[in-house]
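Exercise: predict the structure of this protein bound to NAP.
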Amino acid sequence: MRTIELQAPGGIENLRMVERPTLEPGRQEIVIRVKASALNYRDVEIARGSYHTNFALPLVPLSDGAGEVVAVGPEVSRFKIGDRVCGTFWQRWVGGSFVMAEASQQRGGPIDGMLSEFARLDEQAAVLAPPHLSDIEAATLACAGVTAWHALFTEGNLKPGETVLSLGTGGVSLFAVQFARTAGARVIVTSSSDEKLARAKALGAHDGVNYRDNPDWGSTVLELTDGRGADHIIEVGGPQSFAQSLKAAARCGQINVIGYLGGSEGSINPLDIFRRQVRARGIPVGSRESFEAMNRAIAVNGLRPVIDSVFPWHEAAEAFRYLEHSSPFGKVVLDHMQ
Ligand SMILES: NC(=O)c1ccc[n+]([C@@H]2O[C@H](COP(=O)([O-])OP(=O)(O)OC[C@H]3O[C@@H](n4cnc5c(N)ncnc54)[C@H](OP(=O)(O)O)[C@@H]3O)[C@@H](O)[C@H]2O)c1
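Solution:
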């Protein structure tokens, strides 16, 4: 089978297509024909060698993908040949708190990922794809979608009428906009681009704030909410935006610490957490249980992930460069049938 490997750290040019032996399922494993895979910011960081963890190489990149089950091990009970599935990000976090993921590992590093003709998955590390989604759409869910769901619902217990502040218009943040709007929340988005703010509003956001033109965007969020602030914040900016997120937070609001797109250096005043009685927590994607709950919501509400662009999978390096440099609106996906 054909597979694309990251053969050395430090550059997207180190992605190489190679031949590997045909995959056979173990007793409780399935083999899928990968139909589509999707990129996350993490994958770019792993390829260029700037991710916080170094993985053994060669590595097949990408945590996210969808495909059709083509072989099942003798003890598999969750799936049958022909099912359409998505792999989970964590390999052994079925449900419960993150403590249950302790011995687990992530697909796309250190476990081989989806950038391949075929992938072998433990049957516990896969879910059925929402039936109304195309393979391209289903491929986008495992990391960004589950992260947004886990933050707002599994941990956040979001209620109708609460305000969700979603920072930027990356993959996680756009899923958060769609989920929050579907749940009846008030949704505010920040972006460096007025054009993207308009697109986020077309997707369901009620208000938008340009964080580049308006460095004090936390105060603007307070004004937009009559001084109340945001109950749930999707914080992907990192230490530099965290101080503004604290300013924008409602009393007892929840700040979901997810990413560090603005860099990992910066400082905050912990007394601001005390004054507003804010709860800040790290979000490590989410469990399979969260993935399944999210898929039910996607199916019932007919939601469709936002796709920015689709590349043939053998042009993976171009897709990595595009995500790194082009600031897409929505997910960058690889079509494995091209
Ligand atoms: N903890 C987890 O489980 C988890 C899971 C997934 C992702 N992440 C992390 O979360 C972050 C977002 O991931 P993603 O896949 O959504 O990324 P992405 O799709 O690459 O998001 C890029 C967008 O983020 C926005 N952005 C850039 N710098 C920003 C800043 N300083 N403040 C606010 N927004 C900023 C920009 O939006 P505009 O162009 O609109 O300005 C940009 O288009 C990354 O750091 C990623 O590593 C963590």
